[in-house]
DNA sequence: CAAAGCAACATCCTATAGGAAATAGGTTCC
DNA sequence: GGAACCTATTTCCTATAGGATGTTGCTTTG
């Protein structure tokens, strides 16, 4: 049963601890980067062959991804990648982000340690040198940096439950953003630095307010995307 | 391969659509009702034999439950039910509930339809006749009714993302409450009715305030539980 | 020409078997 | 008497095979 020597030369990164974990990360990346396009059927067997594993760990990873909201499962019809965000879902996402991330910023300003405040300030400053690169790469780097900044604040807020909720929200955001390159990188950086300054100063109310202003502005920057492409609506259960 | 006639007489309820779904609900109930005690190892094969299915759907259900936070998975050591809430985790839970459910109550007051307002009012009123029953049964019924009320408000708030977050939080709460019967049923009912009245009247601010007052009071009612039993602390990764 | 029915196909879902790792217990050595 | 090492067992993890179901395309009929 020569199943080990075939493991070389696969397109997955070096294995973590369990195969299921690797497969989970691999598929998550495939969905996040839209290599598996939104709203498309996911063939378990084909995916297993592609990753050079048996269908069982693929099935297990898909079950976790469904709980994350990145794929959907129709009972006897297989898995499907979650379709693109509709306008209503996008608005809902930012409404909830406003609520949750306003709170994380305020709490971060109150609870963060000295070392954590420095990390946040550094992260906001590091956002500048993403000007390098071109097109897709540059946009992907910017998106990753933005996510890192927001996740860092959620991490520092000192509430595991709040952090989980925010992280879950962010993975939903990726279902929209990668398709629509935005041009507001400089504005985003200054807004980030304003948030970082308020947190460093320990001013909870100012931090929350700066975060809410940032999210409101970011929401406005993303809006034109819905005019460029036909709105996908919510064609998610065509029965 | 006589695998169908063995399906009769199992302790699972009638099958929904897929076996994995049934198994998921079954295990979820086992964890919620503490038939699988918190912090205990979960043997996949034993569970599969108990439910009279193969390990594969059990494994899939466990993966979903891990995403829900009801079980944990240590890479090469199997699954474990999530341990009891520590004092710090309990405080965190109610902090986040205060934030999220205050928002759901306010939004429910603004967005609910006439029919939905009636359902909420009816649900709050129905909370009275749980005085019947004894001990465990009575407490379980009260807990279920409380969860239904809060979930209903989250449902009506008109934000799918917010509803998911709240629902997720509630499943965490079950990890604490069932072990410590509380005596505040009458107070809970009046508080629920006050919330329902504010929502029915369409007063967002009053509804949010009533919800926050309710949660603050409920938190106080639960607190003595930590004095009755030795605090479990956070013995979750004994290596 | 359109719609309904049928059949073939592809895919998912479940069951079983075997290899690998971690845990637990006993033994031995210090 | 205690700690470290080794061995045996248990358990998890992965792979493969077969049955049931949904889906798709074609044919036939009105």
Calculate Rg of chain A over CA atoms: 20 Å
Return the domain count of chain A: 2
CATH class of the largest domain in chain A: Mainly Alpha
- The appropriate CATH architecture of the largest domain in chain A is Up-down Bundle
Alpha-beta classification of chain A: mainly alpha
Oligomer: homodimer
Strand order of the largest sheet of chain A: 1-3-2
Number of strands of chain A: 3
Percent of residues in helices of chain A comes to 55-70%
Order of helices and strands of chain A: HEHHEEHHHHHHH
Main interface by residue count: A-B, 34 and 33 residues
Reported for the largest beta sheet of chain A, the result is: 3 strands, antiparallel
Structural notes for this entry:
The structure is a homodimer. Chain A has about 240 residues and is mainly α. Chain A folds into two domains: about 15-80, Arc Repressor Mutant, subunit A, CATH 1.10.10; about 85-230, Four Helix Bundle (Hemerythrin (Met), subunit A) (Up-down Bundle), CATH 1.20.120. Helices cover about 65% and strands about 5% of the residues of chain A. Chain A has ten helices and three strands, in the order αβααββααααααα. Chain A has helices at about 20-30, 45-50, 55-70, 85-110, 115-125, 135-155, 160-175, 185-200, 205-220, 225-230, and strands at about 40, 70-75, 80. Chain A has a three-stranded antiparallel beta sheet with strand order 1-3-2. In chain A, helix 4 (about 85-110) crosses helix 6 and helix 4 packs antiparallel against helix 7 (about 160-175). The longest helix of chain A has 25 residues, at about 85-110. Chain A is globular, with a radius of gyration of 20 Å. The model of chain A is unreliable at about 1-15 and about 230-239 (pLDDT under 50). At the A-B interface, helix 3, helix 4 and helix 7 of A face helix 3, helix 4 and helix 7 of B. The structure holds a DNA duplex (30 and 30 nucleotides).
